[in-house]
Structures are given as C-alpha cells and as structure tokens.
C-alpha cells in the first residue's frame, strides 16, 4: 500500500497545473513483483540501493516503438516480466516500459508516473523519463508527434530540472560521463530510434529551454 500511495500522488499534479498538455492516463501493471524487480534492477544494473523504485528526472529520452499502435505498445509493456528477448533478459527479467507514449495523431498517454522507474534506456533509467512514439524507420514520426513531444517536454521541464533531451540512438554518448550507471560494460544494444532528423527538429523547437548539448 505504501507504494500505491506514492504512485497516485505523482499522478495528481496533472489536474492541478492548467498549463499541462492533455494527457490520457493508461497505467500499466504496477504491483509488488514489478516493484521488487525495479529495485533489483536499480541495484544490480545501476549500482543504486534504494528503498523505493523512484527516479529524480534530469533527462528525457525520446524513442519510437517499432509497432503501429498504442494498444500494441500497452500490451508489450503491461506484463511485469519480459517475454523472450534474451539480449535483455540476461540483464534482468523486468519488462521494458516507459512513462509516456505518443500516438501518431499526437495524443499523449501516460503509462507510469514521472518519478516511477521504467526500463527503457541502458545506463540512464535511474534519471530519465522515457517518451515512446508510435512509429518506426518505415513509418517516420509525424508533425503531430513532434508538436506533442515539444509540449510534453516543456511541461516536464517546468516540473523537473531537465538537463538533457536525447534520442534513444544517442544514449551511448554518455558512456564516458558521470551520468552513465551500468555495472556491466558489455551490456549494450544498438539503437537507431528516433533518428537524427527528428531529434534535430525537436531540439530546434526546444532551443529556448537552453538544454545541455550532447557530450
């Protein structure tokens, strides 16, 4: 019950801040098993021994889903344990997830509260909010998604001290910095989402936030 109280406390501000974009709540399963697996991940992968599976957001990582619907993404993230994908299960049985998903029309869905841990980016989960976008290399992200990402990131920047906004394909740029927390130097996966073109456009729209450049 202690963790459930924290879960809903973080959701409440969306109704309290008029300047926030419209966000549809669509929570994935959050139970004691997921809590324990998240704590284990924080300890074993990030070297952080915490009493609660929470993060202090300082970064946003933008992804694409490589599928065609919010429903498919929900069904992928909702199970507590990761089915298959041996390249990931060797590190942890905890399923992948993200805090947000943005549909092709720009609708923003929230799967987890901002400050609850989600497994989406190796080495950086402990400080990063994940934004998944419905799309792929074959289905490039839309103008509506670009606008929604901008609005959501501007909102998050008012709530938290966000220093970086990066594409998933850029995460390895942090390997030689103090931001990187991954206990196994060989645990790396290749990523190309959401691509340089989308991130260049997004950063141009966010220029006045004075975010840090990539290392």
Task: Give a structural overview.
This protein has six helices and six strands, in the order H-E-H-E-H-H-E-E-E-H-E-H. By secondary structure, the protein is an alpha/beta fold. The protein has a six-stranded mixed beta sheet with strand order 1-4-3-5-2-6, with helices on one face. A hairpin with a 5-residue loop joins strand 3 and strand 4 (about 110). Helix 5 (about 145-160) packs across helix 6 (about 195-205). The longest helix is centred in the last third of the chain and has 17 residues, at about 145-160. The protein is globular. About 35% of the residues are buried. The model is unreliable at about 1-20 (pLDDT under 50).
């Amino acid at each position: 019950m202690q963790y459930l109280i924290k879960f809903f406390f973080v959701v409440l501000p969306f109704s309290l801040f008029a300047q926030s974009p419209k966000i549809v709540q669509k929570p994935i399963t959050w139970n004691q098993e997921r809590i324990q697996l998240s704590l284990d991940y924080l300890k074993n992968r990030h070297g952080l021994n915490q009493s609660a599976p929470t993060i202090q957001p300082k970064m946003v990582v933008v992804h694409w889903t490589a599928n065609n619907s919010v429903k498919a993404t929900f069904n992928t993230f909702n199970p507590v344990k990761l089915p298959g994908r041996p390249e990931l299960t060797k590190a942890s049985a905890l399923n992948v997830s993200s805090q947000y998903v943005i549909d092709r029309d720009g609708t923003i869905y929230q799967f987890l509260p901002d400050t609850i841990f989600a497994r989406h980016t190796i080495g950086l989960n402990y400080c990063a909010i994940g934004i998944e976008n419905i799309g792929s290399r074959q289905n490039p992200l839309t103008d509506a998604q670009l606008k929604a990402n901008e609005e959501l990131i501007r909102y998050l920047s008012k709530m938290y001290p966000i220093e970086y906004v990066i594409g998933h394909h850029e995460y390895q740029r942090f390997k030689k910095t103090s931001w990187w927390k991954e206990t196994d130097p060989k645990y790396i996966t290749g990523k190309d989402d959401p691509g340089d073109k989308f991130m260049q456009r997004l950063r141009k729209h966010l220029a006045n936030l004075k975010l840090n450049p990539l290392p």
